[in-house]
Structures are given as C-alpha cells and as structure tokens.
Amino acid sequence: MTRTALATAFADSGLGVRRGVVELAPSTPAWAETFERVAGVLRNTAPACVAAIEHIGSTSVPGLTAKPLLDVAVALRPGTDSADADVDAWLSGLGMLFRGDRDEIRPDRMYGFELEPMVRLANIHVVPVGSPDLSRYLAFRDRLRASPSEREAYAALKLRLATEHPRDRLAYLAGKEAFIVARRGS
After folding, report:
1. CB–CB of 70/39 below 8 Å?
2. pTM of the predicted structure, to 2 decimals
C-alpha cells in the first residue's frame, strides 16, 4: 500500500488545516469514519513494532468543535530496538512527512500527512505502549467523551482562543494547556 491508499482513506473527510491558521469546525461523524479507514490502512501495513493505533485529539470526541485535523497515536511495543527506523520507513512509505522527535516541547515522535502543500490532514504521534504520554492522550479523550459539561467547556475555550489567535497556533495551543493539564491528572 502506498500514499494512494492513505489519500483514498481521507476522501470526503472534511479534514484539512492550512499551516499558520487556527480554524475550527463543528464535529461530524465523518471524522470517526475517516479514522477507521486510515487506521485500517495503517494496521494493514504496520511493522511488527506497532502494538496499537488510537484516535486521539478533538476529532476523536463526538460533538466537540475541533480543528479539522485527525490525530492518531501509534503505540510501539516495548523493547523494539529498530522501531525508529522501522516506523520511519513505514510512515514515509505511506507519504507521511517527518515532523520531529520527542523533545522538551513535543512528547512524541511526530509525522504529518498532507495531500497538498501546507494543508495538514493528520498528525501521527508515535509513543511507547504504557508511556505516560499515551495514557494522558487516552485519559483526556475518554474524559471529554464521557462528560458533556467538560466537552462544552473545552469547546467554548477553543472557540475563544481561535477568535483571539486566528493566526497564532502556538498561542492557541498554550491557551488550552491549563485546561488539559487540570483534566488529565498531571
């Protein structure tokens, strides 16, 4: 499978965020459907070091206003020595763009998928199974799925921040951080 299979999985998804712009869209069932198609392509092509593929981020929460950008966590089995090289070959072979390694800002190894330059459709977050980062991603997603009041409060915050920072993604992300940290338990 190649980039074409992944591109087909994104057909009619309503996803796509132009770099440098903070845009939000109302939730749509197409996001979950797109994740299932994308996850199918990923699972069918994944190297042995991949243990799980999870839908994370705001598009994984039904009813939540979100940047129309699919966030996917790829969880790696512990003790897989060649994982970085295997994952890089796998995701690059699907047309993913390497976006950076884990560092003081980013808790994971990151890849992005674009069908046209500067318009991101997906972020792929590569993390170890059992890592605190993966646990936090899943706990925050599950909390928002379970609590309409938390989901509404988060949506209101995101809308305010998008209005205040329409061309400053870093300010938008920083503005959400206190809400996220308070609700993920760390």
Report:
1. no
2. 0.92
